[in-house]
Input
Amino acid sequence: MPMLAADTLLPHLEQYIRVSEALQAALLNRVRVASYGKGQLLHDARHVCTRSDFIQRGLVRLYYLRDGEKITEYFSAEGEWVNSPNSFIKRLPDIYYLEALEPTHTLSLQVQDLGYLFDTFPEMERYARLSMGSVFGHLMDRITSLRFTSAKEKYAHFCDTHHDILPRLPLGMVASYLGITQETLSRVRAGR
Output
C-alpha cells in the first residue's frame, strides 16, 4: 500500500472496523494514488463516475451548473471520501462536478474494486454502513438548515460544523452552499 495510505486510510477505516492483514493486502492491490491541482476536476458531470477518492490532503467541492453559475452542494476535506454519488451508484452521468479547491492528493478506488472489497470482506460493508450514518446525519442537518433557518442561523451552523475548513474556502462558495447571496453573507458576517 502506498506509504501515505498506511498513515491516512487505515486509521480512518480503523475508526469503524478492525482492518485485517488480508484486507490491508487487498487494499494494497487496488488503491491508486492521484493528485489534482487547484481548479482541476476530479470528476466531470458529462462522464460516469467510476471511482471514489479518499482525500489525504486537500479540499474538494461538489457543484452543479444552473444558468452557467456553479452551485456548491458540499465540501470534502482530509479524511473523507468523495465521488458523485448518483453517478457512482447508478453508473450514469449526472449533474455533479468535483473540483479541487487547492492542491489535492487522494487514494482512489475503482467501483469494481470497491465492490470486490464489499463482497470479500464483510467488515467493509460494516464500515460503509457505519460511515454512511454520519454522512446521512450531516445531510439531514443540511436539509433542515436550508429549509427552516435564517441566513444568520445557516452561517452559524456552517461555522460550527465546518470550522476546520472555513478559512480555506472562498466566501462566494460558502454563500452558494448556504443558498444565500454573497452580499447577504457579508452582512451576516459583519453582524456576527
Observations:
- DSSP finds eight helices and eight strands in the chain.
- Helices lie at 3-14, 21-30, 85-90, 111-120, 122-148, 151-161, 171-178, 182-191.
- The mean pLDDT is 91.
- The radius of gyration is 18 Å.
